[in-house]
Write a structure and sequence with these properties.
By secondary structure, the chain is an all-alpha fold. The chain contains one helix and no strands. The chain is rod-shaped and about 80 Å long. The protein has a domain of about 30 residues.
C-alpha cells in the first residue's frame, strides 16, 4: 500500500484561499508585517540550508583528501618495503 500524501501541489486557487484566510486572521493592517516576517524567516532558512550544504561539502572534501593521503602513504610504504 502506497503512502498517502496529505498535501498535493499548490496552485493559484489554493494560494488565493490561503491569502484570504491570512487576511481574515491577521487583518489588513498586520498583513505587511506578517509578510515581512515570513520573508525574513524564509531568507534565514535558505541561508542556514546553504551553510549546512557548504559544511557537508567541506567535510566530504576533507575526507577525500585524507583518504587520498592514506593511499599515497600506503603506496610509498609498499614501495619502500620492496
Amino acid at each position: 500500500m502506497a503512502p498517502v500524501a496529505l498535501i498535493g501541489p499548490v496552485g493559484w486557487p489554493e494560494l488565493i484561499i490561503i491569502f484570504f484566510i491570512i487576511l481574515i486572521v491577521f487583518g489588513p493592517r498586520k498583513l505587511p508585517e506578517v509578510a515581512e516576517a515570513m520573508g525574513k524567516s524564509i531568507q534565514k532558512f535558505k541561508k542556514a540550508a546553504r551553510d549546512a550544504r557548504e559544511d557537508v561539502d567541506s567535510s566530504l572534501k576533507d575526507a577525500k583528501k585524507e583518504e587520498q593521503q592514506k593511499r599515497i602513504d600506503q603506496t610509498e610504504k609498499d614501495e619502500n618495503a620492496e
